[in-house]
């Protein structure tokens, strides 16, 4: 019996310690008055500073959604541009509160870095782009080719795995900074350039003669991209997870930045919970019950964000594809706010 009592006391102390630690990032963010997000050093459609220094893109809008959740104000955020080598260290060290940079969720990253993925805001796949002058129509024709790739990425590992599986030789040209890779590729230092297909499409729009380049059809991988946070801080994890999920839920229910005020009068109980007409959901997160309303009003639902940053209304002009709602044939599926 004594052993059982000691075990119970130990469990209670562990639970108390965990609960005390659970809100560390949440409390720190509240105290300083803004969210610090890690983003890429510049990928069109994901995170890129415009001529006025204003950061835009789907990953920046993820950061804005978190700010709207925490402060009822989507402008209360700052970004830290990070390359692939810096991103995890910056999150581990506390330099940033959340990594909203395009980052692939993998088992290894969830189990060895002290970090954890909080959801997927873009489903992608890795591909390879070449100049049409090379005269190839398939990656299987790239035997002996030089291929530009960033180090310390799943991209580098996937490239090696795919070519080894096909028993094809290639020569990696490893370059750390993304913009330097683009310059190297456009200057002809490598025959091909590999990264996520969305990024290849982004890069192609910036090249002198975009029509000169083609993205080959092969998919080297699955790339579920999304935000990451530190492990052991469940309250902050929940804020990030649900800031994303409610944007998906809003699209499914037809709630947009333009009609959100009218939708707040809806008799639909699901919409009432989402928009805070029925109280309680915000309290469960430790934020205002209007947290979702503020996200949708100030940032938009997922479909609006996609269209503005990556879709037909953007310079990228990408199809929704897998990133369409499950109701439109995609795999985006919001978890219920209830």
From TrEMBL:
Q: Where is the signal peptide?
A: 1-22
Task: Name one process (GO BP) from the record.
Answer: amino acid transport
Please name the Pfam families in this protein's record.
Answer: SBP_bac_3
For the keyword Transport, the answer is: yes
Q: Which Gene3D superfamilies does the entry link to?
A: Periplasmic binding protein-like II (3.40.190.10)
* Coiled-coil spans in chain: none
Occurrences of domain Solute-binding protein family 3/N-terminal (ranges): 34-263
InterPro entries given in the database record: Bact_solute-bind_prot3, SBP_3_CS, Solute-binding_3/MltF_N
Arranged from A to Z, the UniProt key words for this protein are: Signal, Transport
Kindly indicate whether the keyword Transmembrane helix belongs to this entry.
no
**Annotated family:** Belongs to the bacterial solute-binding protein 3 family.
Q: What name is this protein filed under?
A: Amino acid ABC transporter substrate-binding protein
Q: Which organism is it from?
A: Bordetella ansorpii
- The coding gene here is peb1A_3
